[in-house]
Fold:
Amino acid sequence: MTNLAIRAESLWKIYNSKDGRVVALKDISINVEKNKITTLLGRNGAGKTTFLRIAATQLIPTKGKIEVMGYDAVNQPYMVREKIAVVPQDAKPLLFPSPLEYVSSILTMRGYSFNEAKSVAHEALQELGFSEAQMRQAAWDLSGGYQRRLLLAAVLAINAELILLDEPTIGLDPIARRELWGEIAYLKKRNKTILLTTHYMDEAEKLSDKVIIIHNGQKILEDEPKKLIDRFQWKRKVEVLDECDRELMSKYGEVHGTKAPYIIYLNDDFDRAVSELNIHGCRSIAGLTNLEDVFLYSVGEEKWKLIGEE
Structure:
């Protein structure tokens, strides 16, 4: 039995519009392993949501093949839908009076008896940190973070094997985002496979077993977050917060950016660089490079290189 939840080969999605053809996905091949968190990372419009919707059987690819949980997503969509759960970017459970009713209703639509649905819903909500009072309060009175958590509780209750999350933390405050990360990690501990899309670098770096960077509908890079960072040729960076003479900055390393804040990538003498730049009135701080730097290099207009990438 294959260990792949999703196997996409040479996938294309082309839209026809009055302004001409729009290529959303271009010859993209992606594997998503079972029982892991895989993240599609890219700018808005990169093609992340298009791929997720094809995997969810909501869109038909123009060309290529995609299998989801062992089934052909184009020719066997109903078999795929029995195995997956999808949480769209703009999903909000606001039409239901309470979280308990929301999850119970989803379960009854899937064939559960009323009593069984209520029991399973209660257990799922409890597992994701809902108090008895929160289970019964109006869903529209929940915070944004708890509304997203409610969607994950529904996913947990229906026991889907593959969970597709489109920008799961968009619009949440930093505390709510981190709390939701914990719930997503908890789903993985329950042996769920998760494919999520995001443009948040910290989210991708902290949650993912594998990151796939997509740009203009194409796969640019993929690997474990730490391995992507380790392959990056620069280990240190200096962030220059003020406008500063470019010739001065370039004395210390590679300068990235056309206006403040700038990033100078370097491996040595970063303490000296910060000290001298500050003396010249260019407020600067030093730090380690991270996944954001890998992303900026791989999709930026300037054609920077990664170690091992030609």
Summary: Residues 302-310 have pLDDT under 50 and may be disordered.
